[in-house]
Amino acid sequence: MAWIYLVAAGVFEIVWAYTMKQSEGFSKLWPSVITIVTMIASFALLSLAMRTLPLGTAYTIWTGIGAIGAFIVGITVLGEAVTMMRIAAALLIVSGLTMMKLSAVS
């Protein structure tokens, strides 16, 4: 169950990162509200996952899901640049996440 909480927390992290961008420095009400609500949900789910998962594993996976998810949203929704260097960096993050998951005890 901890891994489900962790993945859900990562998805909420992607949402809050995107809506924070849309809030334009918290100057727009609804993107700001969505950012705060999804931040709280993300942290709450992360804390549930950390009941059984090691800190280093949970936090690394959580931030990695958010980083890769924000990278994908940036490219697909916001039209950010797709370069070989950015793709290589993302692949390194994914390989690190995979190694972290495979090394996890719980």
TrEMBL record:
It is a multi-pass membrane protein. The keyword Cell division does not apply. Keywords: Cell membrane, Membrane, Transmembrane, Transmembrane helix, Transport. It holds the Pfam family Multi_Drug_Res. This is Guanidinium exporter. Belongs to the drug/metabolite transporter (DMT) superfamily. Small multidrug resistance (SMR) (TC 2.A.7.1) family. Gdx/SugE subfamily. InterPro entries: EmrE-like (IPR037185), Small_drug/metabolite_transptr (IPR000390), Small_multidrug_res (IPR045324). The chain crosses the membrane at residues 33-50, 57-78, 84-104. Its main location: membrane. It is found in: Cell membrane. SUPFAM superfamilies: Multidrug resistance efflux transporter EmrE.
